[in-house]
C-alpha cells in the first residue's frame, strides 16, 4: 500500500456548468471541451503527478449526482388489448421530455427542472430531471403487459469512487458490479434559482441570472442519451396479429437496452455514470482555477491523499536446464555423425600456404584424389610419385571410353581441354 498525493476537485465549482440568463444557458469553452472529451472517450489525465509505478487502485472523493424524490407508476395493459389497435397506455404525448406517441415502448428523457412547478420546493439545490419509460409486452397475448414510468430528480453530490491509476497518470473509474459511486453528501454550492420563482404560482422572472452546475451537462446528455421508440398496432390483415415494438425508428440508445424478448433494461445507472464521468472530467479541468476553494463548500480542497494498492509488473526469468541438456545432447550427436565424414580433411594446428600441393588439395585436383593431407608432400610422392603426366589435349576422365589406341592411349567421347594430365588421358601432345 502506498499514499499518493493527487489533485482532484471533490465537487464542481459553482457555475462550472454555465450561467442562466434570460431563460438561456451560456457556457465557457472548458465545459464544451469536457463534453467532447467524454463523447470521444478521451483518456482522463491527472494534472498532478502521483508517484504511482505500474497500476494503483484506491478511492477518491469526486463530484457526481445522485437520484432523489423518485416516483414510479406502472400502467397494467390487459391481454385483451394485445389485439386492439386502439389501445393506449400513455397520455404524455408532448411534455418537458419530448414528444411521444400514445404507445411508447422505450423512452429516455433528461431535462433541466422547471422552477415554476409546485413540487420544486422539495429540493434545496440545483437539479436535473430524468424520465424513463419501459414497456414490457413479452407475453402480451397470454398474460398482458405493462408500461412503467419513473421520474427522478438528479442532484449534485460528493461521491467516493473506486479509481485506477497507471504510470502515465491516466485515471479510470471502476464501474464493475454496476457501481455508480458511494454518496458522501449532497453538494451545497449550487444555486436552485429560487429567485426566479414567484409566489402564488406566478411565472418565473425571465431576466434573472444565476450560475448553474448541471445546466449544460444536462442539455448535452439530454441530446446524446435521448431515446424514443413506440410500439405499432396489430395489422388487421394478419391473423392473430398483436402489438409489437417498432423496428423502424430505433436509435443507438434503444438498441443498447433492448432484449431479445422485446423488453428493455433500466438505463438509470448508465445515465448516472455518464453524469458522474462528465463531472469527474470537469473536476480535473477545474483544479487549476485560482478561486476554486471559494467556489466549493467550506473545508473542501482539491488536494487529496489516496491510499492505493500498487501493482507492479516485473519480468522474472527462470532457467530450465532440461532444454539446455536436450540441446547439448543433440549437438553432440550431430558432431559425432559428421566427424567421420570429415576425418582426414583437416589437420589441427597445421600451417597453410599457397604451395602447389596445398592449392591442389584445396581445389580437389584429380591427381590428389587419393592423397592423404595428413601425410603432406612426402605422402603424396610416395603414392603418386611414379605417375606420368603430359601436357596436351586432355579428355575429362568421365568421357574416356576405356579403349586404347596403338600408342596405348585411351579413346574419348568428346570433352576436350588443354592442360596437364595423366599420360593415358592426353590424346596428343601439344608443342
TrEMBL record:
<keyword id="KW-1133">Transmembrane helix</keyword>
<keyword id="KW-0472">Membrane</keyword>
<protein>
    <submittedName>
        <fullName>Uncharacterized protein</fullName>
    </submittedName>
</protein>
<keyword id="KW-0812">Transmembrane</keyword>
<feature type="transmembrane region" description="Helical">
    <location>
        <begin position="323"/>
        <end position="346"/>
    </location>
</feature>
Amino acid at each position: 500500500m502506498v499514499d499518493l498525493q493527487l489533485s482532484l476537485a471533490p465537487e464542481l465549482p459553482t457555475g462550472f456548468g454555465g450561467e442562466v440568463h434570460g431563460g438561456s444557458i451560456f457556457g465557457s469553452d472548458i465545459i464544451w471541451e469536457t463534453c467532447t472529451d467524454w463523447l470521444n472517450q478521451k483518456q482522463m489525465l491527472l494534472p498532478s503527478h502521483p508517484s504511482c509505478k505500474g497500476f494503483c487502485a484506491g478511492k477518491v472523493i469526486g463530484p457526481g449526482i445522485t437520484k432523489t424524490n423518485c416516483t414510479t407508476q406502472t400502467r397494467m395493459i390487459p391481454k385483451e388489448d394485445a389485439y386492439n389497435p386502439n389501445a393506449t397506455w400513455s397520455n404524455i404525448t408532448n411534455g418537458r421530455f419530448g414528444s411521444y406517441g400514445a404507445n411508447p415502448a422505450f423512452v429516455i428523457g433528461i431535462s433541466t427542472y422547471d422552477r415554476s412547478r409546485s413540487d420544486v420546493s422539495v429540493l434545496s439545490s440545483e437539479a436535473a430531471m430524468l424520465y424513463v419509460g419501459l414497456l414490457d409486452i413479452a407475453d402480451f397475448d397470454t398474460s398482458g403487459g405493462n408500461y412503467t414510468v419513473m421520474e427522478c430528480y438528479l442532484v449534485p453530490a460528493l461521491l467516493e469512487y473506486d479509481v485506477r491509476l497507471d504510470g502515465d497518470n491516466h485515471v479510470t473509474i471502476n464501474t464493475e458490479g454496476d457501481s455508480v459511486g458511494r454518496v458522501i453528501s449532497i453538494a451545497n454550492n449550487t444555486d436552485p434559482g429560487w429567485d426566479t420563482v414567484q409566489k402564488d404560482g406566478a411565472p418565473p422572472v425571465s431576466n434573472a441570472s444565476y450560475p448553474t452546475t448541471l445546466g449544460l451537462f444536462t442539455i448535452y446528455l439530454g441530446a446524446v442519451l435521448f431515446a424514443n421508440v413506440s410500439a405499432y398496432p396489430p395489422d388487421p390483415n394478419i391473423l392473430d396479429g398483436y402489438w409489437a415494438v417498432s423496428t423502424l425508428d430505433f436509435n443507438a440508445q434503444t438498441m443498447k437496452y433492448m432484449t431479445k424478448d422485446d423488453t428493455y433494461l433500466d438505463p438509470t445507472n448508465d445515465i448516472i455514470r455518464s453524469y458522474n464521468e462528465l463531472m469527474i472530467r470537469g473536476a480535473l479541468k477545474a483544479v487549476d482555477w485560482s478561486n476554486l476553494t471559494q467556489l466549493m463548500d467550506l473545508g473542501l480542497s482539491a488536494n487529496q491523499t489516496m491510499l492505493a494498492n500498487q501493482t507492479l509488473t516485473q519480468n522474472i526469468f527462470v532457467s530450465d536446464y532440461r532444454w539446455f541438456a536436450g540441446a547439448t545432447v543433440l549437438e553432440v550427436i550431430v558432431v559425432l555423425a559428421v566427424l567421420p565424414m570429415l576425418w582426414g580433411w583437416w589437420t589441427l594446428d597445421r600451417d597453410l600456404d599457397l604451395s602447389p600441393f596445398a592449392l591442389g588439395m584445396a581445389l580437389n585436383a584429380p591427381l590428389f584424389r587419393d592423397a592423404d593431407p595428413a601425410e603432406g608432400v612426402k605422402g603424396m610422392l610416395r603414392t603418386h610419385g611414379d605417375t606420368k603426366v603430359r601436357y596436351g589435349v586432355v579428355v575429362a576422365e568421365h568421357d574416356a571410353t576405356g579403349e586404347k589406341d596403338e600408342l596405348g592411349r585411351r579413346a574419348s567421347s568428346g570433352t576436350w581441354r588443354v592442360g596437364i594430365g595423366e599420360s593415358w588421358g592426353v590424346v596428343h601432345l601439344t608443342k
